Amino acid sequence: DTAVSQTPKYLVTQMGNDKSIKCEQNLGHDTMYWYKQDSKKFLKIMFSYNNKELIINETVPNRFSPKSPDKAHLNLHINSLELGDSAVYFCASSRGLAGWKMTYNEQFFGPGTRLTVL
Amino acid sequence: GNSVTQMEGPVTLSEEAFLTINCTYTATGYPSLFWYVQYPGEGLQLLLKATKADDKGSNKGFEATYRKETTSFHLEKGSVQVSDSAVYFCALSDLTSAGGTSYGKLTFGQGTILTVHP
Predict the structure, then answer these.
(1) From CA B90, how far away is CA B93, in angstroms rounded?
(2) Where are the alpha helices (DSSP H) in B30-77?
(3) How far apart are CA B81 and CA A7, in angstroms?
(4) Residue B100 pLDDT more than 90?
């Protein structure tokens, strides 16, 4: 009964490679997110999609490209991987209310994907 | 911009000790405030939340009160258990605008590692 799932859980790859991380939620939520957690546990939002539409795009290198084929999926593709991309990447989802009510919404997180770039 | 500052960790306590993790925030609007917890090897999960000034969030013996006058949302628990060992994140959710529509966006503090010894 996994609510938010991510694959793979671990990803080890060489610098310069291209890789993808997949995320799926079965909660019926409209909004999905990608976060990056660095080695000091600091969490920062990267992207957010609402109903397959990009609504938040933080200052992230354009080597990172999110894709939302439908409301239940948000994948993250990374081109030309660099050492600094090593981190844990979390997917999350929440109900897609707009306006002030959106700030009340709990976000549900996946288990994370630990990416190591060698 | 918005920011959240938590007390530096790590915090190490003995079982049944009193816990306080300080959290202060800076926001331009009227944010909702959250505490999320991350157990080892897992994603984040919501611990408690408060959506307006003077609201108290509580769950599993943890409490936090939204103090607008001091812009704080300190987490407390009267008697911690070994199973409370985790990373605790304070966060605020405020509106961000995209394409003429406003959406909620979470900003996290840096996280506080808590270790409870028997």
Answers:
(1) 10
(2) none
(3) 32
(4) no
Give the closest of B104, B108, B110 to A103, CB-based.
B104
CA–CA dist B111, A6 (Å, integer): 22
Task: Give residue for tokens 């996994």.
Answer: A2
Point out which residues pair with A109 in neighbouring strands. Answer: A92
Q: What is the pLDDT of residues A24-41, one digit of tens each?
A: 999 998 889 999 999 988
Choose among B36, B42, B89: nearest Cβ to A111: B42
Q: In chain A, pLDDT over 90 holds for what percent of residues?
A: 64
Which amino acid is it at A20? S
Cross-chain Cβ contact B99/A112 below 8 Å: no
Kindly give the pairing relationship between strand B112-117 and strand B11-14.
parallel
Mutation target for B interface from A43, A51, A95, A109: give the one with most B CBs within 10 A.
Answer: A43
